[in-house]
Write a structure and sequence with these properties.
Layout lengths: L4 H13 L2 H8 L3 H15 L4 E3 L4 E3 L1 H28 L4 E7 L7 H12 L3 E7 L2 H10 L4 E4 L8 E16 L19 E4 L6 H13 L5 E5 L2 H9 L5 E4 L10 E18 L7 H12 L1
Parallel strand pairs: 3-4, 3-5, 7-8
Antiparallel strand pairs: 1-2, 5-10, 6-9, 6-10
Helix pairs in contact: 1-2, 1-3, 1-4, 2-3, 5-9
Length: 292
């Protein structure tokens, strides 16, 4: 059942004032017009909303029951109008953002907090997905922006490098390399590895495997896991891993991070060249500033 927003507003005004004359004055309409609107709403709902006598107006039991819902409906309606106007100017609306697990611990909170300070009316819909899934979603218009590690942009997708961060070895606290300040990748030869599945980030996976082979070994991946799960398995002593430096923001008991000499990961912001969301340019600028 659809109810005209004007009727809800009239009902709320009378419920607040418990006086038709004052409510009509507040709404800047005539009292007969207000009375007609209340009758129309009661007819639509099939209930009496007010108990009226010649001396006073009170909310009926049905009116009491529906009042809070009416207030919520008015609040949401007002917010929708405000967001629509802001969105038309690029100052409000919703942004759908996809991320890799490595972005979540430190970088994403920094960017979201910075953007909400300057654009408080923006709402976010965050999802976690692989590089390939993000690129498909961007092309399909399901996502406005993505954080990826890709070798090149597919047709229709724009990529901007946000940062290049060191690669860290994650080892158990009692590991032979845990007390080192830096290590060479070759020193992990022969170690059991906990590493993310290739489909999570094909480019980053293949780049790491190639780096290991260049260092003289092929990693023995004994467990596949991503993000916090991978670090948990390292803490349990099931192997070592390699992660972006942003994972240092994660407090994981039992894991020590050691920089790997000469190895880095590049993170890019991705978006569709056809994306028309007016809130996207400002978000791209915020991400750029947060990373530079």
């Amino acid at each position: 059942m659809d109810v005209d927003g004007r009727l809800w507003r009239s009902f709320a005004a009378v419920a607040d004032e418990l006086h038709y004359g004052r409510a009509a004055e507040r709404l800047r309409i005539t009292q007969p017009a207000l009375s007609r609107q209340i009758r129309d709403l009661e007819r639509i709902l099939g209930v009496r909303l007010f108990d009226r006598t010649s001396r006073r107006v009170t909310l009926s039991r049905a009116g009491q029951a529906v009042l809070e819902q009416a207030r919520r409906a008015l609040t949401e309606s007002d917010r929708a109008v405000r967001l629509a106007r802001l969105a038309a100017q690029g100052g409000g609306g919703e942004l759908a953002v996809a991320i890799l697990p490595s972005v979540a611990p430190a970088l994403l909170p920094t960017i979201i907090r910075a953007h909400r300070k300057t654009h408080p009316e923006i709402s976010f819909r965050i999802s976690e997905s692989s590089d390939d899934e993000q690129l498909v979603s961007l092309n399909a218009g399901r996502v406005d922006a993505g954080f990826v590690r890709a070798s090149a942009a597919p047709p229709g997708i724009q990529l901007e490098t946000l940062l290049t961060e060191p690669l860290l070895a994650g080892v158990p606290l009692d590991h032979r390399l845990a007390d080192r300040d830096r290590i060479a990748l070759s020193e992990l030869a022969g170690e059991p590895f906990v590493f993310f599945p290739r489909h999570r980030s094909v480019f980053a996976y293949d780049e790491f495997i190639a780096a290991c082979r260049a260092a003289g070994f092929s990693p023995d991946i004994v467990q596949e896991a991503s993000g916090i799960s991978a670090l948990g398995l390292v803490a349990a002593g099931l192997g070592v891993t390699a992660v972006a430096s942003s994972y240092q923001a994660v407090s994981m008991a039992g894991v020590r991070f050691v920089p790997l000499d000469g190895h880095e990961l590049t993170l890019q912001l991705a978006w569709s060249a056809d994306n028309s969301n007016p809130a996207l340019p400002a978000f791209r600028e915020t991400a750029r500033r947060a990373c530079y």
